[in-house]
Amino acid sequence: MNRIRCASYTRKSSEEGLEQEFNSLDAQREACAAYIASQKHEGWVALREAYDDGGLSGGTLERPALQRLLDDMRAGRVDQIVVYKIDRLTRSLADFAKIVDILDAAGASFVSVTQSFNTATSMGRLTLNMLLLFARFEREVTAERIRDKIAASKKKGLWMGASVPLGYAPDGRSLKIVEPDAAVIRTIYELYLEHRTIRQVKEVVDGRNLRTPVRTLTSGRVKGGAALSSGHLHYILTNPVYAGRIRHHAKVYPGQHPPHIDTEVWDGIQEQLTSASAKGRTFTQRNRGPAKPRSSPLAGKLHDQTGDRLTPSHSKTAKGRRLRYYASHRLIRGTSPRDPSGWRLPAPELEKQVAALIVGHLTRPEVQAGLVADATMEELTATGEKIVRLKDGDDDKLASCLSLCKRIDVAPGTIRVLLSVEAITAFLGINGTRITDDHLTLTSGFRHRKRGVETKIIIGDERAGIDETLFRNIARAHRYFELIRAGQTLSDIAASQRVSKRRVQQIVELAFLAPDLIRDIRDGKQPIGLTSEWLMRHTCPPVWQEQRKLISSL
Predict the structure, then answer these.
(1) What is the pLDDT of residues 383-400, one digit of tens each?
(2) How far apart are CA 404 and CA 272, in angstroms?
(3) 272, 360 in Cβ contact below 8 A?
């Protein structure tokens, strides 16, 4: 009878309960030992070596005990791996493929105590693939459940953690006011009500030497004591927490904590800040005479797919060049600075493309004929001439064209523009009651692609065309996957390719795209919006049918 050396592998994702005398790892190990003993008649023998990974996730192979087990398998010291459940070994399809290759090379296999199958058979491998899909599904459902719980708790006004705002301290699932920091907050609001500009508030705050509180972190490092910047003052003045509210993404709910500022006063301050930001900014031009006012003509009109407003912002290059953007409000205010659903679009490019979209829509004969009810030939001619004059115009004509917008909704793959009846009426110089609603809404394809520091926006319903970057990344993904099958770790690949380990993880997922999707990408027939950036920001399901359904929604 052949002697089969069996190694029991155990794992627990969290460290909770590991300090107990009999914990989850012990329970798994006993179950594996009992199963091995039941197969004694087949020659199974349990090895004394313990392979335990406590407090480590199953989403990666970078686990000390697992790596030691795989090394022992390659050395021929292990014939069989025994686990309590398959998800104790791995939750990743890519990692599973690598483990199976190691098993095949060593002439070994593994079994699950609670799930009866064997990787030595094709049916066993099929069952494993299905179980891994469900394990991944369970992990994603758990993450969704946690997000839903946070959303439901915030809807009830509960404080769910994160950085505690200045002037408050945690109090269970709520906040409590703490002095003297609370006095600083009240002073800032009083100064703004007095001066009405953040710049003057900043000058007074600096004059009084008000600074951020000094805090000692758990690591022993001392943090704080710095001057309050203009950005920090703006964050304090726009944070709904100080009005006794809780923000969750773009929604704000009544909180259960005491406010620093009366809600009506806070709402009035927000209106003042919004009106101030919408005013045109004047820039001094050295030796060029009077400064020319410049503004963001789409301010207050742009919204993303979550309903969040896109706010004008800017940055400066090393040479002092000013770059304008429209960014989702939650990214600027710091509430969700890394939210992958947020937008940051170059303002000049977006304004130019939207203006071209509006002019193209209004120059269509059926739109001109149906926009004004009972229009005479003279009115149609005059309307056409006015619209044509907007083409290839200067900044003033561009602003005039964009003033026709009432609201713009941007979503992955789609842009929707709603024209204003009042603006159209003023532009054409006719009675507003004659404007029909049939042609005031226009929808078009929308693609946003970033290459290095350059961002390109394409508005139109045509197909995306050949995306060389995406196609190159798919080829790179298959090469990475072959290296994984050959026995290299993600760290090895990252070091050899001079990229981060996270980048390798993102790229290798592209190797599991459906063949027909890859063929469309090769031919440039993929939907607008399907880019490398989009695929890496979204979890692409391993089932091809689900992939097609997800991508078809772009």
Answers:
(1) 777 777 776 556 667 777
(2) 25
(3) no
CA–CA gap between residue 141 and residue 121 (Å, rounded)? 30
Q: What is the 3-state secondary structure (H, E, C) of 490-525?
A: HHHHHHHHCCCHHHHHHHHHHHHCCHHHHHHHHHCC
pTM of the model: 0.36
What pairing do the DSSP bridges indicate for beta strands 405-411 and 302-303?
parallel
Distance CA 203, CA 159 (A): 33
Each residue's pLDDT tens digit, 143-156: 788 888 888 888 88
Nearest Cα to 249, choosing from 153, 145, 332, 335? Answer: 335
Question: Considering the domain 4-151 in this protein, what is its CATH number?
Answer: 3.40.50.1390
Instruction: CATH 3.40.50.1390 in the chain: give the residue spans.
Output: 4-151
CATH class (in words) of the domain with range 168-277: alpha beta
- Amino acid in position 210: L
Q: What backbone phi and psi angles, to 5 degrees, belong to 186?
A: -65, -35
Q: What does the DSSP 8-state code read for residue 340?
A: T
Spatial distance between the Cα atoms of 543 and 140, rounded to a whole number of angstroms: 14
The two tokens of residue 432 are 């507003």
Please tell me the distance from the alpha carbon of residue 536 to that of residue 469, in angstroms, as a whole number: 13
Structure tokens that stand for 381 in this block: 């001619």
Distances (CA, A) of 371 to 360, 402, 419: 14, 18, 11
**Tens-place pLDDT, residues 414-466:** 889 998 888 888 877 777 677 777 788 888 887 765 543 445 666 665 455 67
CATH 3.90.1750.20 maps onto the chain at 168-277
Q: State phi, psi for 31 to the nearest 5 degrees.
A: -65, -40
Helix (H, G, I), strand (E, B) or coil at 346: strand
